[in-house]
Protein 1
Amino acid sequence: MSQATELRIDDIAPPAPGYWATAMRKLRRDGAAMTALTTLIVIILLCAAAPLYARDIAHTNPFESNLSGTVLRHGKMVEVLGAAHNPLRLGVEPIGPSWKLGPYMLGADGQGRDVAARMLYGGRNSLLVSFAAAVICLVLAALTGILAGFFGGWTDRAISWLLDALWAFPVFLLAISLSVVLIAHGIDIGPIRLDASSLALPITIIGVIYVPYVARPVRGLVLGLRQSEYVLAAIGIGAPSWRILWFDILPNVISSLVVFAPLIVALDMLTEAALSFLSIGVQPPAASWGTIIHNGESLIYTRPIVAIAPGLAIVITVLALNILGDGLRDALDPRAKLRN
Amino acid sequence: MNTPLLCVEGLSKHYVSGGALSRRGRTVVRAVDDVSFTIAPGETLGLVGESGCGKSTLGRCVTRLLEASGGKIEFDGRDITRQSGRALRETRAGLQMIFQDPYASLNPRRRVRDIVAEPLIVHGRGRSGEIRDMVASLFADVGLRPEQLDRFPHEFSGGQRQRVGIARALALAPKLIVADEPVSALDVSVQAQIVNLLADLKRARGLAFLFIAHDLGVVRQIADRVAVMYLGAIVELGPAEAVLASPAHPYTQALISAVPVADPARAREKRRIVLAGDPPSPSNPPSGCPFHPRCGFATEICTTTKPPLAPLPDGRLTACHHPRI
């Protein structure tokens, strides 16, 4: 009887689905985010299929130069690297793109290699570096941000000092200095031995430099959660710190990390492209979108497609990642109600 | 009275801000300043005072959610002021808290079943099947239905959420519950239901309460004794009927005169004491009696000497040079 006034119509409704299920439902109704996600999946699948393309369509090894090869184009055999059209006939002009599915669809680069095949192989490296670096960044940021925010005191001071020291460098200055030193010599510290051409180097460098940008907001979030009444209630119950971190802190941190993730992948992809363009990221003969742009730089007046194609690939991927990030933010915001 | 369950002696909580480099220098905010009281087993002490007087800080110091700056807290015969680790965890099983905001005190990501089970799991009070049954019976005790167990906090109304908070506090069968304004965030119609529930639980389980509120009407319903706080210190402490019917401290009188009266005939007779000004800042309290700048009865001595909390002939305590008897 005393409860009659508290009865609400939704008392007879089925219990609500969990937090993540609700977020997924919201995301599925977000057209822009789903388009972005589909685009990303298509790009990833295409890059994964790089060896198939190189073997069955392009019939070429994209890592070997082909200076004197010929290819069938419009019914006649054409040199992959033809003579240049300038008045002095100096240098060479690589074969241009064609609309037909086949060898040299996007033309050749300065060494007669198939740009389309290199794009797909390069995309593999660009995606691998940016995703792996983002994982490193998010894991380190979550760890440091949570420890600093939850335990406070000296833990917080030590971690914050380290992050500030890292933050004090301009991102690209730090990335470039680290890359120049490490890629020149590789790493050889005790059990850790990395070859200068190893992808692990750019992955680690790019992963670490963005840690403060995520760890700071995580620390702030945890600092706020630490004072929330439900964390106080958990302390009042006598719950050990690990239970509070696991049940009360981490779920909240994870949802903001999920929002950060695509944005960090996008940032990492841009950084990787910049470093590779400067020859201090992915090392030849391996390719990435950044190294292909670098190869295309000298052909920018004769065959601009060599630089434009990987540039477009980066723009589309980064744009898709950012739109997906926005969609995730909206989907994970508990205040945003599910619209029917 | 038999041996007290909770005995607080000279409890202080000071916040220091600014340091040697600060332009204003060091300031000390005395949020709670030299507070002493006891609570007997099964007794309810109502703690009233306006916002910012240190009630909640005092409650959190007692439950060890805040570290006291000075003084002693004895619970169930043990000094818990500096307890830590396993001993503190055991103390906490007997000393639980209900929070003011039923929206903020429940983790929005956990189902209420898990929220209520948490204290039982933490203290290893049974296997998962047994804990399931205990949670269901706690749910029934606070007037919620078992089919609501798998819902999330946001699916409940404010009153229902507060019932969940109460179930969590009851889970470990504590001896004392510190209820920090448990009804002030609720609608008036729901307030009465929650106060009745707490009163029922108090009778049925012999629970003692430190019941913090700013609403004297709510305190009247549940408290055996009442302590009135002003600027971090207790100014009047005595049996609920005596304090509420014939307040001795001018501040208590002003508080009581502010309670609305339902009967218009009686309301016309009532004299309303309106206090001038705001409560002074606890970082810069007035000299002498902290209440003297707002008091209608203040004299010379009030501005220079702080009155001690002293017994009146009827046994209650008041901190006033000119108690109104």
Protein 2
Amino acid sequence: MKKKIGKALVVGAGIAGIRSALDLAEIGYGVVLIDKAEHIGGVLSQLDYQFPTNHCGMCRMLPLVERDAGSQFCLRKGLFHENIEILLGTRVTAVAGEPGRFTVSLRTRPTWVDPQRCTGCGACVPVCPVEVPDAFNAGLGRRKAIYLPVPHQVPNAYRIDPAACTRCGACVDACPCGAIALSTAERKDFRILVVDDEPIVRQSLESWLEDEGFAVDTAASAPEALEALEKSEYQLMLSDIKMAGMDGVELLRQAKTACPDLAVVLMTAYATVETAVEAMKIGALDYLVKPFDPETLVPMVMRVHEELLAAKDRQVEVGAIVLAGGTDYFDPRQQAGNPYGYGRLPAVVTSLEFERIVSGSGPTTGRLVRPHDGRPIRKIAWLQCVGSRDIQCGADFCSSICCMYAVKEAMLAREKGAGEVEAAIFYMDMRCFGKPFQRYRDRAEAEGVRFERGRIHSLAPAPGTADPTLRFVALDGTVREETFDLVVLAVGQRPARGAAELAQMVDLPLNPWGFLATSPLSAVRTERPGIVAGGSFAGLRDIGESVIFASAAANEASRVLHGTGGSLAAIEEAATEFRDVSRQPPEVLVAVCTCGDRILSQNDRRQWIDRLERDPVVQETIFIDRVCTAEGWQALADAITARRPNRVLIGACHPYVFTRRLRELGRATRLHPALMDVVDLLGPRMAASGENAEAVSSSGDLPRRLAMAVARLQGTCLPQVEATPVSRQALVVGGGIAGMTAALAIADCGYPVDLVEAGDRLGGNLRWIGHTLDGHDLNALLAEAIARVGKHPKITVHANTRVRGAFGEVGHFYSTLEAADGAAQTLEHGVVVLATGGGEAAASAYGFGSHPAIVTQKGFQEALAEGRFDPAALNTVVMIQCVGSREEPRNFCSRVCCPTTLKQALALKRDNPEATVVVLYRDLMTYGFAETWFTRARRAGVIFVAYRLDDKPKVEVAGPDRPVTVTVTDAVLGRPLTVAADAVVLATGIAPGLPADLAAAYGATLDQDGFLAEAESKWRPVDSLREGVFACGLALGPRNVEESVATAGAAAQRALRILERERLPAAHLTAVVRHSLCARCGRCIEACPYEARRLDEELDRVLVNPAMCQGCGACEAVCPNGAAVLNGLSMPQVFGMLDQALA
Amino acid sequence: MNDFEPTIIAFVCNWCTYTAADLAGTSRLSYPPNVRLVRVMCTGMVDPQYVLKALLEGADGVLVSGCHPGDCHYINGNFKARRRIKLLKALLPQFGFAPQRLRLTWIGASDGIEFARVMQELVEQVRELGPSEAKMKMVI
């Protein structure tokens, strides 16, 4: 893997942090990925299912190019990548420097368990006497003070929660590996000298501090203290001032001369405070005024201790910092009066707790029963907007995710309950603003989820039971009562705990909602160059959006790193010349780690050797005590050098940890690491109840597993696949803000870009929008982008040009461009970014076209600008939302129309406060911070009237000179409302402008609405399924300017993964074709989900593009002739494994 | 009490079910010792020949288990497996095997408990069926 000298720090290892880290690592930068939690994955480690698929799929974020550089297993278990160093339980304590040269101090919390030694056997758990609520299960279960942060994590080393641990030492005795060292040692090493002439003070201080684990000595006078300081080393001296003979100040003076590093705190009576202050000038750290109690003293000593530890913080030098700290959930107990009784009523849970109830690894093992009484759950209510859209609890924003996760949870509940579960969602507006979300919501309704628009009046237990009863006001104004088995509070998001401190540390302000403030219209850039925000750290986003903003943040960081010289290649060791073993019959050396006789005893060895050497390819079986130690590793290297096997199988624990070490071993022994394998001897263990490890080992399961691995390894050979060369330049189609941003993002990292625009000018929709809802000027953004694109030496703009045709695959596409004058040229490029944009959808309802007063949003803005409408003359304006959108055939939300309506309504009220503005809407989609403007609009007197899809407003036109009449049924009043309007503004939403044939030319597909179909809406949101083809802006889906700009950065970053490589290497596990056996039937071409195979008619051969092949083996299973072979897991290898499994 | 201990070959996908098996192990759930895991990249690569080979070589039951539909790391591999295994089940009697010896399940990464349960259930089911038909013929 290519390595550059540039390095970045990613703070937060949730899904966004992982995305940012991988995006940077995949283009060669070193990454330090830290999280304050003890596991990666953030909140997603607790969520098994995601909307709108109701599945997981997180693993699709793993590298697709150069797969072998990273781990290839479930991301919930863990993550490894050559260029990423992961530090858990770690936080930032200081940041200094400038872009390209930041020095960051990191402090890692000790876990008191040595991860190298801990095998995850769990013997410590039953003996631990402490039980605390289990954070992984959202507090629904309990865990011990020694615990696994998540149940499936590699390496699965236990941790000790220092806050809960009583340091009783039971686990230390129980641990068979000696992995636990209860480190009050750190405090024991912190030696304190207490100097006072009063014995009572000495004794009490000694006892308070020793209770906290510090090492304390005492001295009764200054000379005695100096003597003690001479004899041994102390870190802190607590000294009285007034002492007979030599006083504290003189002691301080002499002590600081003898031991300059000693921290001294003076204890003083009120009368001598002045002396103490004076003493600080000659080196006292602080003073305490007598009398004091342990509550004052102990924290102070701990602070001094902490500060001393801080000096030992690890310093890392990085060029850029990505802040991806995520968000936290709102605690419903903080609501004034706790109206839903959360914490008091056991059947009222938060959405996160419900996620744990439906999880297979949760407290109820996925059964739909109430955790507190085990009763089956049959009727559930979800209450929306708990802690969101609520000014009283400081949330004048919409949390953006709750509506959709409530729909998901309701569907999951219905599915788990086999249709017998009633699920009802009580909401204000159903905010399904993502591309597939409206259809998802409709599907939920069709499948029986009840949607109840209404406000909850109160929640109380039903008489005589603990079951919650809701009283609510339905839309028709009647008050109803209904009892449920479980009430789920759809809690909103809050800035992550510690976010404010982190912002302060990097000297960045917070926005009015308490999140990190970012630069206008960027959402990832901050005031400080080189420090960027990723994921949901600076706003409220779902997974898909977080992933986009994480990639965009990685792109900003890449540009900073590139701009400050971080792209220089790191000095790498010379490539090892491996032994050519391709012509040799396999000879396998099996090395088994005995782990100090824990894995197998002396007596078993003979049995293992006999079992393994039944297979003649096994050259020898050797046993090494603790292969993980330096001596063990050397013994293994020596054995390989001496015996010269051509395959090596290691039986040990923690196989994932070995990946990096195998490369070293390969260099030392000149045997290619792909010809080595590690079997996890402590992995999935098939122990029948009561059976222990010894019994398993003697029953032959472990030697059998080794024998199966030998069978697989002997069939492994080095891939003979040529790496695909890359044409290292990009084509961006579309010159709107997304296209220009993408072009700049790629060009800023040093690669040439051709930018194709069909029109004669760059700019797209930004030429008419003017400004955003929050008042940012888009013309300035546009002018700056056009100027930069024009000046950039790496960007070639082709205006008045269209892409006529294209062919090729990732690494080398060929596109034919045709200019308006007919001139054609062909370009070769490695990647393509489709940024063809979109526009306002055409209106065809509500009498559009029959009266000049009926206009679209764009038309309204243009009419105001051109003076056809005079704001002062507009007395009544009706704005109708969702015109032809959110219903078939355009059944998606366009996201921008509701904010645009607010923008226009507020502008109108500003220019003409007397004007009546009526907004007719279905669900007002002011997600995120846009909610604030909804509040403002209501305060400004804009009237909002909800209408139903089955009872749409009616627009009547009496004549060209008479006002237009709009009639709508007001749901609350229950009767029709008629308005005579001077203008009727129709919000028609967005129509994509991506021609199907253009997408098809590059092998990408469109979704049913004409936007690009992403490879995966959450995990690969800007990729098409075909590698090398990306999309951004409106071509990808409806988005506002800020979000479109982010998709452009994300698409550029994804494209850079390809452009950064001269050749795209094949992974070890890649499909190949045995041409002599191939009948060219083409079944493998159809079976390949990545379109990595094609029939080359000239060569008359089926070819595999190794950069696109992901090694799934689908081709192997369909090939009738055995011509399609998955290198590394071929049919003979599987057969061999089966033979051994059943031998 | 039937004390026959059947041997089960389980083809598990690298992404979901193997993780679940791992989780069952680390959670110290007990599942029968006579299950032998064969880790494949995807259920979509399980050739029907693998299943037949396992049964012919003496396995009493075969499990194929992958990610839930729609959840496949390789987009649609499990759909391929679903079609293939359904067809194979129809053909098994022609090879002389009871179709109940083959089972296809979807077990997600977090479902360690589900994995242990499926394994126990399958072992019980196969125990009822008795030793594999192939084994009995080999004795003859």
